[in-house]
Design a protein that fits this description.
Layout (H helix, E strand, L loop, with lengths): L1 H11 L3 H18 L2 H10 L3 H10 L4 H8 L3 H11 L4 H19 L1 H10 L8
Helix pairs in contact: 1-2, 1-7, 2-3, 2-4, 2-6, 3-8, 5-6, 7-8
Amino acid sequence: MEELITRVTQKTGLDQATARKAIGLILGYLQKEGPQNEVNQLIEAMPGAMDAIEQAKTGASGGMMGMMGSMGGGVMALGGQLMGAGVSMGQMQPLGKELFAYGREKAGEDVMGPIVGSIPGLSQFV
């Protein structure tokens, strides 16, 4: 996980704590919305992923992001959560690209392809 956090901070300019939270939010979203088998393989291939997901859950904020999530806002709700965590719109795409590139390195395209393909709107961030 530390390697991924370093890569994300270099690509996005986020600090390490924000990068970790953002990664946890994204992985938690994939866990909820993506194909279970492939997402589980991805999480297993990324040491520290479950810890990041749990840490992101404990700091989840309500407000507008919570309302978007409860309305089933999909990728838009995830974007709201990321903004609430301190990720700007301009940082989201490089964050997603780096996270998914890392996922491909660790788990392979046969795991990442179905995840990206199964979640509407996700491909624009990866």
